[in-house]
């Protein structure tokens, strides 16, 4: 998250080897919307497979037999087997760096969280259980990490 008011998220994408903007960024610019998923450790092979360079117009979803479902409150579908998905609209795109990266800022409009990974806390607020989500983090190149032992700390008053 970049901001809570408005609720903004950001992702970055480099250029294709040809220097062109990647299709993901083009698609967000053209449609003015996207869905951001939180991948789980169990999906590491699929995440890596979808990073393959495809010809323009070829779909990672089709190439990897990823099942999509309707996403309530969003014009785009979400990945069926993903625990968390954010339905977003384009906020701003910036180019940064000497080898320009596209920084894509999006405003969160709707959220899907699988019931299996949430519960109510003592104050009746939704709590997402990181150990059940098992979020996958890409460190760079082919290196990934997961959360081995989530922990909580009391916040100062």
Key features?
4 helices, 157 residues, 5-stranded antiparallel beta sheet, globular, 11 strands, two-stranded antiparallel ribbon, single chain, Pnp Oxidase, Chain A, mainly beta
Layout of SSEs?
Elements: E1 3-4, E2 7-13, H1 23-31, E3 33-38, H2 44-49, H3 60-63, E4 68-69, E5 78-79, E6 84-96, E7 101-113, E8 118-120, E9 126-128, H4 130-133, E10 137-140, E11 143-145
Antiparallel strand pairs: 1-2, 2-7, 3-6, 4-5, 6-7, 8-9, 10-11
Please explain how this structure is put together.
It is built from four helices and eleven strands, in the order E-E-H-E-H-H-E-E-E-E-E-E-H-E-E. With 157 residues, the protein is mostly beta strands. It has helices at residues 23-31, 44-49, 60-63, 130-133; strands at residues 3-4, 7-13, 33-38, 68-69, 78-79, 84-96, 101-113, 118-120, 126-128, 137-140, 143-145. The relative contact order is 0.20. The longest helix has 9 residues, at 23-31. The protein has a five-stranded antiparallel β-sheet with strand order 1-2-7-6-3, covered by helices on one side. A two-stranded antiparallel ribbon has the order 4-5. Helices cover 15% and strands 37% of the residues. It has a single domain, classed as Roll (Pnp Oxidase, Chain A), CATH 2.30.110.10. The mean pLDDT is 93.
Query: What pattern of helices and strands is seen along the backbone?
Result: EEHEHHEEEEEEHEE
Radius of gyration from the CA trace? 17 Å
Helix content: 10-25%
In the CATH scheme, what's the topology name? Pnp Oxidase, Chain A
Give the count of structural domains.
1
The CATH superfamily turns out to be Electron Transport, Fmn-binding Protein, Chain A
Strand order of the largest sheet: 1-2-7-6-3
Q: Separation of termini?
A: 23 Å
Provide the CATH top-level class: Mainly Beta
Largest sheet: 5 strands, antiparallel
Q: Calculate the mean pLDDT score and round it.
A: 93
Q: What characteristic shape results from the CA principal axes?
A: globular
Poorly predicted residue ranges: none
Oligomer: single chain
């Amino acid at each position: 998250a970049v901001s809570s008011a408005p609720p903004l998220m950001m992702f970055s994408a480099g250029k294709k080897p040809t220097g062109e903007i990647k299709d993901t960024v083009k698609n967000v610019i053209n449609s003015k919307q996207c869905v951001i998923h939180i991948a789980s450790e169990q999906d590491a092979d699929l995440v890596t497979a979808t990073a393959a360079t495809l010809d323009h117009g070829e779909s990672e979803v089709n190439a990897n037999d990823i099942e999509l479902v309707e996403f309530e409150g969003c014009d785009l579908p979400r990945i069926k087997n993903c625990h968390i998905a954010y339905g977003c609209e384009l906020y701003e795109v910036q180019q940064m760096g000497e080898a320009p990266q596209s920084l894509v800022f999006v405003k969160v409009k709707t959220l899907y969280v699988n019931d299996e990974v949430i519960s109510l806390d003592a104050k009746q607020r939704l709590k997402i259980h990181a150990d059940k989500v098992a979020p996958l983090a890409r460190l760079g190149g082919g290196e990934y990490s997961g959360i081995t032992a989530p922990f909580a700390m009391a916040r100062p008053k």
